[in-house]
Specification:
- The longest helix has 15 residues.
- Helix 2 runs antiparallel to helix 3 and helix 3 crosses helix 4.
- By secondary structure, this protein is α+β, with helices and mostly antiparallel strands.
- The protein is 26% helix and 28% strand.
- The chain has ten helices and 17 strands.
Length: 378
Protein backbone atom coordinates (compact mmCIF):
# COMPACT_ATOMS: atom_id res chain seq x y z
CA UNK A 1 0.00 0.00 0.00
CA UNK A 2 1.34 3.39 -0.89
CA UNK A 3 1.92 5.61 2.12
CA UNK A 4 0.31 9.00 1.98
CA UNK A 5 1.72 11.53 4.36
CA UNK A 6 -0.35 14.65 4.74
CA UNK A 7 1.61 17.89 4.75
CA UNK A 8 1.50 19.95 7.91
CA UNK A 9 0.62 23.55 7.09
CA UNK A 10 1.69 26.61 9.05
CA UNK A 11 -0.83 28.54 11.06
CA UNK A 12 -2.26 31.33 8.99
CA UNK A 13 -0.44 34.60 9.55
CA UNK A 14 -3.27 36.84 8.41
CA UNK A 15 -1.76 40.08 9.55
CA UNK A 16 -3.80 42.63 7.69
CA UNK A 17 -6.10 45.27 9.09
CA UNK A 18 -8.35 45.04 12.10
CA UNK A 19 -10.19 41.89 11.06
CA UNK A 20 -9.05 39.68 13.94
CA UNK A 21 -11.61 39.56 16.76
CA UNK A 22 -11.07 40.91 20.24
CA UNK A 23 -12.39 38.65 22.95
CA UNK A 24 -11.55 40.93 25.85
CA UNK A 25 -11.01 44.68 25.95
CA UNK A 26 -10.66 44.86 29.70
CA UNK A 27 -9.17 42.34 32.05
CA UNK A 28 -10.25 44.20 35.15
CA UNK A 29 -6.87 45.92 35.53
CA UNK A 30 -5.13 49.10 34.47
CA UNK A 31 -1.86 49.45 32.55
CA UNK A 32 0.43 52.45 32.47
CA UNK A 33 1.06 52.20 28.71
CA UNK A 34 -0.44 54.69 26.29
CA UNK A 35 -0.70 51.90 23.71
CA UNK A 36 -0.87 48.19 24.53
CA UNK A 37 -1.98 44.86 23.15
CA UNK A 38 -1.86 41.18 24.11
CA UNK A 39 -2.41 38.50 21.46
CA UNK A 40 -2.63 34.74 21.20
CA UNK A 41 0.44 33.95 19.10
CA UNK A 42 -1.15 30.81 17.61
CA UNK A 43 -4.22 32.57 16.21
CA UNK A 44 -3.31 36.26 16.23
CA UNK A 45 -6.46 37.03 18.18
CA UNK A 46 -6.41 40.06 20.46
CA UNK A 47 -6.93 39.20 24.14
CA UNK A 48 -6.46 42.67 25.61
CA UNK A 49 -5.93 46.07 24.02
CA UNK A 50 -5.60 49.74 24.83
CA UNK A 51 -5.22 52.16 21.93
CA UNK A 52 -3.77 49.23 20.02
CA UNK A 53 -4.12 50.89 16.59
CA UNK A 54 -2.77 54.29 17.58
CA UNK A 55 0.41 55.19 15.68
CA UNK A 56 3.34 55.85 17.99
CA UNK A 57 7.15 55.92 18.01
CA UNK A 58 8.57 52.50 18.97
CA UNK A 59 12.25 53.11 19.77
CA UNK A 60 14.47 50.00 19.63
CA UNK A 61 11.58 47.58 19.21
CA UNK A 62 12.28 48.62 15.60
CA UNK A 63 15.13 46.13 15.78
CA UNK A 64 12.62 43.26 15.66
CA UNK A 65 12.20 44.05 11.97
CA UNK A 66 15.92 44.72 11.50
CA UNK A 67 16.85 41.41 13.12
CA UNK A 68 14.20 39.51 11.18
CA UNK A 69 15.51 40.79 7.85
CA UNK A 70 19.08 40.09 8.90
CA UNK A 71 18.18 36.51 9.82
CA UNK A 72 16.32 36.06 6.53
CA UNK A 73 19.25 37.47 4.52
CA UNK A 74 21.35 34.40 5.33
CA UNK A 75 25.17 34.10 5.19
CA UNK A 76 25.10 34.59 8.94
CA UNK A 77 28.65 33.43 9.62
CA UNK A 78 30.41 35.18 6.74
CA UNK A 79 32.98 37.65 8.13
CA UNK A 80 33.20 41.27 6.97
CA UNK A 81 34.42 44.62 8.23
CA UNK A 82 31.71 46.75 9.81
CA UNK A 83 31.06 50.01 7.97
CA UNK A 84 32.79 52.80 9.91
CA UNK A 85 30.06 55.38 9.19
CA UNK A 86 27.24 53.00 10.17
CA UNK A 87 28.68 52.24 13.60
CA UNK A 88 29.27 55.91 14.42
CA UNK A 89 25.85 56.35 16.01
CA UNK A 90 24.49 57.63 19.30
CA UNK A 91 22.69 55.57 21.92
CA UNK A 92 23.06 51.95 22.95
CA UNK A 93 25.92 49.95 21.47
CA UNK A 94 27.37 46.46 21.25
CA UNK A 95 30.84 48.02 21.29
CA UNK A 96 31.85 48.03 17.62
CA UNK A 97 34.92 50.05 16.68
CA UNK A 98 36.30 51.15 13.33
CA UNK A 99 37.87 48.22 11.50
CA UNK A 100 36.10 45.55 13.54
CA UNK A 101 35.47 42.24 11.80
CA UNK A 102 31.99 40.87 12.46
CA UNK A 103 29.37 38.46 11.14
CA UNK A 104 25.66 38.99 10.67
CA UNK A 105 25.06 36.47 13.44
CA UNK A 106 27.19 38.53 15.84
CA UNK A 107 25.25 41.63 14.84
CA UNK A 108 21.98 39.82 15.59
CA UNK A 109 23.16 39.22 19.14
CA UNK A 110 24.37 42.81 19.29
CA UNK A 111 21.05 44.34 18.28
CA UNK A 112 18.75 41.98 20.21
CA UNK A 113 20.62 41.73 23.53
CA UNK A 114 22.29 45.08 24.37
CA UNK A 115 20.15 46.77 21.70
CA UNK A 116 23.15 48.04 19.78
CA UNK A 117 22.34 50.81 17.34
CA UNK A 118 25.77 50.18 15.86
CA UNK A 119 24.83 46.55 15.23
CA UNK A 120 21.55 47.46 13.54
CA UNK A 121 23.19 50.03 11.27
CA UNK A 122 26.12 47.75 10.38
CA UNK A 123 23.74 44.94 9.42
CA UNK A 124 21.62 47.31 7.33
CA UNK A 125 24.58 48.60 5.32
CA UNK A 126 26.00 45.11 4.85
CA UNK A 127 22.68 43.77 3.55
CA UNK A 128 21.37 46.68 1.47
CA UNK A 129 24.35 48.96 0.85
CA UNK A 130 22.94 51.87 2.85
CA UNK A 131 20.62 52.51 5.77
CA UNK A 132 18.07 54.27 3.54
CA UNK A 133 17.96 51.30 1.17
CA UNK A 134 17.49 48.99 4.15
CA UNK A 135 14.62 51.15 5.39
CA UNK A 136 12.95 50.59 2.03
CA UNK A 137 13.40 46.85 2.56
CA UNK A 138 11.84 47.18 6.02
CA UNK A 139 8.80 48.97 4.61
CA UNK A 140 8.43 46.42 1.84
CA UNK A 141 8.37 43.64 4.42
CA UNK A 142 5.86 45.56 6.51
CA UNK A 143 3.62 45.86 3.48
CA UNK A 144 3.93 42.13 2.75
CA UNK A 145 2.88 41.36 6.33
CA UNK A 146 -0.10 43.70 6.16
CA UNK A 147 1.25 46.13 8.76
CA UNK A 148 -0.84 49.05 7.54
CA UNK A 149 0.01 51.48 10.34
CA UNK A 150 3.78 51.02 10.32
CA UNK A 151 6.55 52.99 8.60
CA UNK A 152 10.29 52.74 9.08
CA UNK A 153 12.91 55.42 8.51
CA UNK A 154 15.97 53.79 10.08
CA UNK A 155 17.08 50.32 11.26
CA UNK A 156 17.85 51.28 14.87
CA UNK A 157 14.69 52.98 16.12
CA UNK A 158 16.20 56.36 16.93
CA UNK A 159 13.59 59.14 16.89
CA UNK A 160 12.82 60.31 13.36
CA UNK A 161 9.90 61.95 11.62
CA UNK A 162 7.76 59.31 9.92
CA UNK A 163 9.12 56.43 12.00
CA UNK A 164 6.15 54.79 13.73
CA UNK A 165 4.06 51.70 14.33
CA UNK A 166 1.16 50.56 16.52
CA UNK A 167 1.03 48.08 19.38
CA UNK A 168 -1.11 45.82 17.19
CA UNK A 169 1.25 45.90 14.19
CA UNK A 170 4.25 45.31 16.43
CA UNK A 171 2.59 42.27 17.98
CA UNK A 172 1.79 40.82 14.56
CA UNK A 173 5.34 41.48 13.35
CA UNK A 174 6.67 39.68 16.42
CA UNK A 175 4.31 36.79 15.81
CA UNK A 176 5.85 36.37 12.37
CA UNK A 177 9.43 36.93 13.55
CA UNK A 178 9.20 34.23 16.22
CA UNK A 179 8.59 31.68 13.46
CA UNK A 180 12.17 32.33 12.32
CA UNK A 181 14.33 29.89 14.33
CA UNK A 182 17.42 32.12 14.35
CA UNK A 183 15.49 35.14 15.61
CA UNK A 184 13.62 33.05 18.18
CA UNK A 185 16.82 31.48 19.52
CA UNK A 186 18.70 34.75 19.93
CA UNK A 187 15.96 36.96 21.37
CA UNK A 188 15.44 34.55 24.29
CA UNK A 189 19.11 34.64 25.40
CA UNK A 190 19.74 36.40 28.70
CA UNK A 191 23.40 36.67 27.75
CA UNK A 192 25.78 35.27 25.16
CA UNK A 193 29.42 35.11 24.14
CA UNK A 194 29.91 36.76 20.77
CA UNK A 195 33.08 37.10 18.71
CA UNK A 196 34.02 40.35 16.95
CA UNK A 197 36.87 42.85 16.83
CA UNK A 198 40.15 43.27 14.97
CA UNK A 199 41.27 40.59 15.39
CA UNK A 200 37.96 39.06 16.58
CA UNK A 201 37.76 37.78 20.15
CA UNK A 202 34.96 36.62 22.44
CA UNK A 203 32.89 39.22 24.31
CA UNK A 204 30.06 38.80 26.79
CA UNK A 205 26.80 40.51 25.80
CA UNK A 206 23.85 40.82 28.20
CA UNK A 207 20.17 41.26 27.38
CA UNK A 208 18.37 44.40 28.56
CA UNK A 209 15.06 42.49 28.76
CA UNK A 210 14.77 41.49 32.42
CA UNK A 211 11.43 39.75 31.73
CA UNK A 212 13.62 36.83 30.62
CA UNK A 213 14.62 36.04 34.19
CA UNK A 214 11.74 37.66 36.07
CA UNK A 215 8.74 36.12 34.32
CA UNK A 216 8.17 32.36 34.10
CA UNK A 217 8.12 31.11 30.51
CA UNK A 218 9.38 34.34 28.92
CA UNK A 219 11.01 33.72 25.52
CA UNK A 220 11.91 37.30 24.48
CA UNK A 221 11.62 39.72 22.80
CA UNK A 222 12.86 43.37 22.80
CA UNK A 223 13.15 46.51 24.88
CA UNK A 224 13.24 50.09 23.66
CA UNK A 225 13.60 53.67 24.85
CA UNK A 226 14.03 57.12 23.33
CA UNK A 227 13.10 60.56 24.60
CA UNK A 228 10.15 60.68 22.19
CA UNK A 229 8.93 57.07 22.33
CA UNK A 230 9.61 56.65 26.06
CA UNK A 231 9.69 53.09 27.45
CA UNK A 232 8.64 50.45 24.92
CA UNK A 233 8.61 46.70 25.39
CA UNK A 234 7.68 43.57 23.45
CA UNK A 235 7.58 40.30 25.36
CA UNK A 236 6.51 36.76 24.58
CA UNK A 237 5.89 33.90 26.98
CA UNK A 238 4.97 30.21 26.76
CA UNK A 239 3.20 28.06 29.33
CA UNK A 240 1.49 24.69 28.94
CA UNK A 241 1.30 24.86 25.15
CA UNK A 242 0.11 28.48 25.03
CA UNK A 243 2.23 31.29 23.55
CA UNK A 244 1.32 34.94 24.14
CA UNK A 245 2.80 38.16 22.76
CA UNK A 246 2.56 41.42 24.70
CA UNK A 247 3.38 44.95 23.50
CA UNK A 248 3.45 48.26 25.35
CA UNK A 249 4.34 51.67 23.89
CA UNK A 250 5.10 54.64 26.12
CA UNK A 251 4.68 52.69 29.37
CA UNK A 252 6.19 54.18 32.55
CA UNK A 253 5.72 50.84 34.35
CA UNK A 254 6.21 48.43 31.47
CA UNK A 255 7.52 45.45 33.46
CA UNK A 256 4.43 45.45 35.67
CA UNK A 257 2.15 46.06 32.68
CA UNK A 258 3.51 42.97 30.98
CA UNK A 259 3.18 40.82 34.08
CA UNK A 260 -0.46 41.84 34.46
CA UNK A 261 -1.31 41.30 30.80
CA UNK A 262 0.48 37.98 30.46
CA UNK A 263 -0.99 36.65 33.71
CA UNK A 264 -4.44 37.59 32.45
CA UNK A 265 -3.80 36.01 29.05
CA UNK A 266 -2.86 32.66 30.54
CA UNK A 267 -6.23 32.57 32.32
CA UNK A 268 -8.03 33.17 29.03
CA UNK A 269 -6.20 30.86 26.61
CA UNK A 270 -5.68 27.14 27.15
CA UNK A 271 -4.13 24.33 25.12
CA UNK A 272 -7.17 22.45 23.81
CA UNK A 273 -6.82 18.86 22.59
CA UNK A 274 -8.27 18.25 19.14
CA UNK A 275 -10.13 14.96 18.63
CA UNK A 276 -12.02 13.43 15.76
CA UNK A 277 -15.70 14.42 16.03
CA UNK A 278 -16.82 10.83 15.33
CA UNK A 279 -15.14 7.45 14.80
CA UNK A 280 -13.62 6.89 11.36
CA UNK A 281 -13.90 3.24 10.27
CA UNK A 282 -13.06 1.82 6.84
CA UNK A 283 -14.13 -1.54 5.39
CA UNK A 284 -11.27 -3.93 4.61
CA UNK A 285 -11.23 -6.34 1.66
CA UNK A 286 -9.44 -9.68 1.74
CA UNK A 287 -8.31 -9.69 5.35
CA UNK A 288 -8.79 -11.32 8.73
CA UNK A 289 -10.75 -8.23 9.81
CA UNK A 290 -13.73 -6.71 8.05
CA UNK A 291 -12.95 -3.14 9.07
CA UNK A 292 -10.30 -0.96 10.68
CA UNK A 293 -10.50 2.26 12.68
CA UNK A 294 -8.41 5.32 11.94
CA UNK A 295 -6.91 7.79 14.40
CA UNK A 296 -4.85 10.96 14.35
CA UNK A 297 -1.14 10.19 13.97
CA UNK A 298 -0.25 12.60 16.77
CA UNK A 299 -1.80 14.38 19.71
CA UNK A 300 -2.80 17.84 18.57
CA UNK A 301 -3.42 20.78 20.86
CA UNK A 302 -4.33 24.31 19.83
CA UNK A 303 -4.06 27.34 22.08
CA UNK A 304 -7.62 28.66 22.17
CA UNK A 305 -9.92 30.76 24.27
CA UNK A 306 -13.20 29.22 25.39
CA UNK A 307 -15.08 30.98 22.63
CA UNK A 308 -12.51 30.04 19.98
CA UNK A 309 -12.65 26.36 20.98
CA UNK A 310 -16.36 26.32 20.07
CA UNK A 311 -15.52 27.25 16.47
CA UNK A 312 -13.14 24.31 15.89
CA UNK A 313 -14.26 21.67 13.39
CA UNK A 314 -12.48 18.66 11.88
CA UNK A 315 -12.97 17.20 8.39
CA UNK A 316 -11.50 13.82 7.41
CA UNK A 317 -10.17 12.75 4.02
CA UNK A 318 -9.68 9.00 3.52
CA UNK A 319 -10.39 6.30 0.89
CA UNK A 320 -13.70 4.45 0.81
CA UNK A 321 -12.08 1.11 1.71
CA UNK A 322 -8.71 -0.60 2.21
CA UNK A 323 -7.17 -3.81 0.94
CA UNK A 324 -5.75 -6.07 3.64
CA UNK A 325 -2.01 -6.31 4.14
CA UNK A 326 -1.21 -3.22 6.13
CA UNK A 327 0.37 -2.61 9.52
CA UNK A 328 -0.73 -0.56 12.48
CA UNK A 329 0.09 3.10 11.99
CA UNK A 330 -0.24 2.93 8.21
CA UNK A 331 -0.95 6.36 6.72
CA UNK A 332 -4.22 6.35 4.80
CA UNK A 333 -5.47 9.94 4.77
CA UNK A 334 -5.55 13.12 6.80
CA UNK A 335 -7.77 15.26 8.97
CA UNK A 336 -8.10 18.99 8.33
CA UNK A 337 -8.64 21.20 11.37
CA UNK A 338 -10.61 24.42 11.00
CA UNK A 339 -10.97 27.34 13.38
CA UNK A 340 -13.91 29.61 12.69
CA UNK A 341 -14.13 28.13 9.18
CA UNK A 342 -10.47 28.69 8.37
CA UNK A 343 -8.12 25.73 7.81
CA UNK A 344 -5.23 25.88 10.29
CA UNK A 345 -3.62 22.45 10.19
CA UNK A 346 -3.59 19.03 8.47
CA UNK A 347 -2.85 15.93 10.54
CA UNK A 348 -2.12 12.46 9.19
CA UNK A 349 -4.72 9.70 9.71
CA UNK A 350 -3.31 6.24 10.46
CA UNK A 351 -4.69 2.76 11.02
CA UNK A 352 -5.17 1.72 14.64
CA UNK A 353 -4.14 -1.92 14.02
CA UNK A 354 -2.71 -4.27 11.41
CA UNK A 355 -4.92 -6.38 9.13
CA UNK A 356 -3.33 -9.39 7.46
CA UNK A 357 -4.32 -10.84 4.13
CA UNK A 358 -6.19 -14.16 4.27
CA UNK A 359 -6.37 -16.57 1.34
CA UNK A 360 -9.99 -16.87 0.34
CA UNK A 361 -12.19 -17.05 -2.69
CA UNK A 362 -12.82 -13.66 -4.14
CA UNK A 363 -16.57 -12.92 -4.31
CA UNK A 364 -18.53 -11.15 -7.00
CA UNK A 365 -18.52 -7.73 -5.33
CA UNK A 366 -14.83 -7.91 -4.53
CA UNK A 367 -14.09 -8.77 -8.17
CA UNK A 368 -16.26 -5.87 -9.31
CA UNK A 369 -14.48 -3.44 -7.00
CA UNK A 370 -11.05 -4.64 -8.15
CA UNK A 371 -12.12 -4.35 -11.80
CA UNK A 372 -13.31 -0.77 -11.26
CA UNK A 373 -10.13 0.04 -9.40
CA UNK A 374 -7.97 -1.20 -12.27
CA UNK A 375 -10.14 0.47 -14.92
CA UNK A 376 -10.49 3.85 -13.27
CA UNK A 377 -7.10 3.85 -11.53
CA UNK A 378 -8.52 4.26 -8.02
Amino acid sequence: MKRFIAGITAFCLALGGNSLPIYAESGGFEVSAVGAVLINADTGTVIYEKNAHEQRAMASTTKIMTALLTAEAGELDKKFTADSFAINVEGTSMGLKEGDIVTRRALLYGMLLPSGNDAANAAAVNISGSMSAFAELMNKKAEELGLEDTHFVNPSGLDASGHFTTAYDLAQLTRYALENPVFAEICRCADAQVEFGNPPYLRQLSNSNKMLWQYEGCIGVKTGFTDNARRCLVSAAERDGVRLICVTLNAPDDWEDHRKMLDYGFTQVKATEIVLPKPVTLPVIGGNEQCVSLKLAENVKLALSESESKTVTVETFAPQFLYAGFSAGESVGFARIYRDGEAVRDVELVTEKAVMETPQEVGFWDRLIMLCRRFFGI
